[in-house]
Design a protein that fits this description.
Helix content is about 35%, strand content about 25%. By secondary structure, the protein is α/β, with parallel strands linked by helices. The N and C termini lie far apart (about 40 Å).
């Protein structure tokens, strides 16, 4: 039985990962560290795990792996520490807030022979996997363009504090679409043009924007990553794609498989997805990676490549011109 620790419950996904661990037949959640002691004690009690106030004390135990759900700015520190103790790592996205930091993190894991997986659960949704099968079978012919969205609710908290998050909706939501498309098409992004703004809320980071991406085949993709869903929206957001090929087009709504729940207790309408749980599938894949000592399905390099696109988008917004990915790799954009 694999012993797993969670480093911080700052990110809301930590709750679903912890839940997935409780359902797993091959692992158990035995340790929790959190720099907010009240939250750490609460989560440890909820999941019947040991709470550690000292992270290195937790890492010195016989844990096989850790799941890192701290604020984005702390991912680098926590990945490097976990790697030093030779713990395999599932890190919440984005891998880091700067390209150079992601490179250091990957190198640290390689030096310690530690598996590093990045949390991109969208790959595990059945709709996205079916798209991959159709594209591999050339059902649409040569794909020319894609219009995609990853809208969301305003997450609030540290997500809108740039010193902790590294950015707003662009940091939070571009990566999911880019990772899915890199995997589906087995292509890399070569050029990015983006424009961001803050229109919906009085916050320090961007809450809306549009991103145009060119892949190496010439395929053009637009992404709307905005935190534009109203407070009454029945779920956190969406993942949609309109894929246009020479032989046809495909409409994708990754979370359309749901029931509507009129929740009088919470006085709100909720979407309850009945498709396979993508977070649970992500965690199970990570556990298999650790148990079988194989490469992760979603590697640290995958996290690096998506981060490069995000940094190119920010530079494009600042300079008002298209930015090549090679420029970001060479210049380590701030």
């Amino acid at each position: 039985m694999l012993k797993i620790g969670i480093i911080s419950f700052a990110h809301m996904h930590a709750l679903s990962y912890a839940s997935a661990l409780t359902k797993s037949s091959q692992a158990e959640l035995t340790a929790i560290w959190d720099d907010v002691s009240t939250r750490g004690h609460e989560m440890a009690a909820a999941y019947q795990a040991n709470y550690y106030q000292d992270l290195e004390e937790m890492l010195a135990t016989d844990l096989d792996a850790v799941i890192i759900c701290s604020e984005n700015i702390h991912h680098k520190e926590h990945v490097i520490k976990a790697a030093a103790y030779q713990k395999h790592i599932l890190c919440e996205k984005p891998l880091a807030t700067e390209v150079k930091d992601a490179e250091v993190m990957i190198a640290a894991c390689e030096a310690q022979n530690v598996r590093l997986q990045v949390a991109y659960p969208v790959r595990f949704t059945s709709a996205i996997q079916q798209v991959k099968e159709l594209i591999d079978a050339a059902e649409l012919g040569n794909v020319l363009a894609i219009n995609a969205t990853n809208h969301g609710l305003l997450p609030g908290g540290w997500f809108i504090q740039p010193e902790l998050s590294g950015g707003g909706c662009a940091t939070d939501h571009i990566v999911h679409i880019v990772d899915a498309l890199r995997w589906i098409f087995n292509q890399e992004v070569v050029k990015v043009y983006a424009a961001f703004d803050t229109r919906f809320y009085d916050i320090e980071v961007e809450d809306c924007g549009q991103v145009m991406i060119e892949f190496d085949s010439g395929m053009v993709v637009t992404i709307d990553p905005s935190w534009s869903r109203p407070k009454t929206f029945p779920t956190w957001g969406d993942v949609t794609m309109s894929i246009y090929g020479e032989e046809g087009m495909l409409e994708v709504d990754a979370f359309k498989q749901h029931h509507l729940f009129y929740n009088d207790q919470k006085n709100k309408l909720e979407e309850q997805v009945w498709a396979d749980d993508m977070d649970e599938a992500l965690v199970e894949d990570f556990l298999q990676c650790v148990a079988n000592n194989r490469e992760p399905f979603i590697t640290g390099t995958d996290g690096l490549r998506t981060l490069e696109v995000v940094k190119a988008a920010y530079r494009s917004n600042q300079e008002r011109k298209p930015i090549t990915i090679e420029t970001i790799r060479g210049g380590h954009s701030q």
